[in-house]
Amino acid sequence: MHPNPIFRREARARHVAFVRDRAFGQLTLNGPEGPLAAHVPILLDAPAESAELHLLRSNPVAHALTAPQPALFIVAGPDAYISPDWYSAADQVPTWNYVAVHLRGTLEKLPLDTLRPVLDRLSDAMEERLPKRPWRSTKMSPGVMDRMMRSLVPCRLVISEIDGTWKLSQNKRQEDRDGAILGIGSAAAPGLAHHVLAAWMRCVSEEP
After folding, report:
1. Which of 29, 40, 115, 184 could make an SS bond with 154 (beta carbons 3.0 to 4.6 A apart)?
2. Averages of pLDDT over each 10 residues, the chain, 208 residues
3. Distance of CA 166 to the CA centre of its chain
């Protein structure tokens, strides 16, 4: 997380809402030969105290998870390069605006008989967002789902801490932030989802 506290003022509820909406990130833990990472979807429980996920059996993270161990799940949002030319103030330097939320906790494997419910809860939650009749695993031919599940492992992250960085130029004057908003909104600047980042930048307060 960014060390400047002005970028870390958002409430836990906003972090949780962001994770629920994004529902995808990077699972990291220490393996026997160094850091490991997996890119997977997750589903938070109602109080945001744990998250369900699944891994391929062949994934190095699954191999390393011989017992519950500390893990970090990173959920990244929109980001963009910010050019000093977009500020009205002189003697500024380039930077990068972004949103990221970290979930820290203990990762553990779940019993295999929980895999189907874990998969169904995740797909149900995602399908409900789409403007169509929801897909359900019951639509699959008999036996196909069971064969596919043999390659998967259900897991749970028991969450001990949720922290986030919302770096949206809060440390700049309003006129400088406005310039950056116009800049990323009108240019093909490096980064992702500029329109979302620009909208969030409009809603933050500058440093007192």
Report:
1. 115
2. 92 97 96 94 97 97 96 94 94 95 98 97 96 95 93 98 96 93 76 77 67
3. 13
